[in-house]
Amino acid sequence: MSEDTEVSREPVVTPVRVVIGLCLVAPFVAMLWVGSYTKTDPAFIGIPFFYWYQMAWVLISTVLTVTAYKLWQWDQRGRAAAHSAASTPKGGESR
Question: CA-CA distance, 39 to 50, in Å (whole number)?
Fold first, then answer.
């Protein structure tokens, strides 16, 4: 088999991609589990728990989404660098 016809051996599921998935799924799980926050106490500056918990998740979701996006960019740059390094000739020469 020549180098051109080899199938890429890079794993599709990597630890970085698992972390990205967890960052994106966590807000959904937190908001869909309504029973965990359907209460009024503890109040925060007079706001019942039910409301400030949801507002806190707006900020947390933003941070998690930005983190997932940055990790995705980092993962793609690493894959592109590995792909370009694998496709160059072994002597370091490019023709």
Answer: 6
DSSP for 27-86 reads HHHHHH-GGGT----S-BTTB-HHHHHHHHHHHHHHHHHHHHHHHHHHHHHHHHHHHHHH
Q: Which residues contact 77 (CB under 8 A, 6 or more apart)?
A: none
**E strand or H helix at 24:** helix 15-32
pLDDT along the chain (95 residues), means of 10: 57 87 94 88 90 93 96 86 72 55
- Buried b vs exposed e over 58-80: b needs ≥16 C-beta within 10 Å? eeebeebeeebeeeeeebeeeee
